[in-house]
Amino acid sequence: MMNFAERRARLMAQMEPGSVAVLLTAPEVARNGDSDYPYRHDSHFYYLSGFAEPEAALVLVAARGDAPARAILFCREKDVEREIWDGLRYGPEAARAAFGVDAAFPIGALDEELPKLLANSPALYYALGRSDSLDGRVRRWLESVRRHGRSGVAAPSAARDLAPLVDEMRLLKDAGEQATMLRAATIAGQAHERAMRLTRPGMFEYEIEAELLYEFRRNGAQFPAYTPIVASGANACILHYNSNARQTADGELVLIDAGCELDGYASDITRTFPVNGRFSAAQRELYELVLAAQAAALNVVRPGTPYRAIHDAALQILAQGMLDTGLLDRAKVGSAQDVIATNGHARFYMHGTGHWLGMDVHDVGLYRDLGQADKPSRPLLPGMALTVEPGIYVRPGPDVPERFWNIGIRIEDDVIVSDSGYTLLSGAAPKAVAEIEALMQGH
């Protein structure tokens, strides 16, 4: 169970006494005609409120002196007629009780109430410079307060970016978040397992995608966490390929990068497997290399490890493997350390080895430790959630062994840093060669 009130209290404790924070949820977005895209709340707003309806705002007033901290929700009014068409609306009164806020108002009252709340407040916290619409409303609120200056009312003298405070809070997942993320990753892992089991040569990529989406929704996930990548053959060498329109062929690999969103939290898993259920010698050689790189990266995930060390561990294995397989000519590029120093690996491995994971697929939070100039990569802490995803992508070239042409491989898992190491969230998705082949061949 997420404790939204506790999160709000923690945030307000970091704010200047008496200051005000304003968060708006995401707007509804028209798709075409009178049809909207499926609605998805703003992550910061939901993290602090638990409220998933559109047209809503959360205002936090930090404690000062004898005045206690307050949380105020603005939301749509009850409208029985609109509910016939669009579904339940809490309305302010029911929302106040259900979401544990101190007061609630109709969203239409926001522009009237904000100047009152900002009067004599020392600072306003909001998402600075991230929305022209919000920036404009802030100016109007402040102008309204300043018009009462002769009456002794002062407008906030400072505007501060709210996002960094919430970003850092979201970086460490509590027990409830971890449980939700485990469930999201388990659902996604089962979807990958289903895709492996049902894939056959001649299927279209979109047919495989349909199996993923079926498994997501069947198990209660509300959305894909992002547009799934189902990339067969040479398409697997396109990092963000997602048209998913090609027909698969015997002898190829298919790379699937797909995760689901469950109750606001994302999973993000990548698996690569042979369309016909059996790796060729060349495919297996590169697959085992990527798998070894991931194992090396996972081996350093523990509290105190600099985030950068995860990438460095994978890169060392991959660079050496590129030399050993002949992808890189040792006589031309030297040792693995030489390859890394000159960025020679980037031809076949051009991305990082992971990212933060949470409410957003590429979740918020700094990767650098800004408090210590000599430690540009922040140390891992228990509760941090991240992906570990090395890969290798081989496009045809005159100096590239032909047996490796058009092989693209990525293996991505979701983990949470624990007190002594890490907890694997995505173990439901098979990744060992023998496990994949046995599954696909029905053994």
TrEMBL record:
Task: Pinpoint the Aminopeptidase P N-terminal domain residues.
Answer: 1-135
Catalytic activity, EC: 3.4.11.9
Q: Which InterPro entries match?
A: Aminopep_P_N (IPR007865), Creatin/AminoP/Spt16_N (IPR029149), Creatinase/aminopeptidase-like (IPR036005), Pept_M24 (IPR000994), Peptidase_M24B_aminopep-P_CS (IPR001131), X-Pro_dipept-like (IPR052433)
Q: Name one Pfam family in it.
A: AMP_N
Task: State the top-level EC class.
Answer: hydrolase
GO annotation terms (biological process)? proteolysis
UniProt cross-references to Gene3D superfamilies, sorted A to Z: Creatinase/methionine aminopeptidase superfamily, Creatinase/prolidase N-terminal domain
Q: Where are the transmembrane segments?
A: none
The record's GO CC annotations read: cytosol
Task: Enumerate the GO terms in the molecular function aspect.
Answer: manganese ion binding; metalloaminopeptidase activity
Q: Which reactions appear under catalytic activity for this entry?
A: Release of any N-terminal amino acid, including proline, that is linked to proline, even from a dipeptide or tripeptide
List the residue ranges forming a coiled coil, or say none: none
Listed A to Z, the keywords are:
Aminopeptidase, Hydrolase, Manganese, Metal-binding, Metalloprotease, Protease
**Cofactor(s) needed for function:** Mn(2+)
What does the sequence similarity comment in the record state about its family? Belongs to the peptidase M24B family.
Its name, as the record gives it, is: Xaa-Pro aminopeptidase
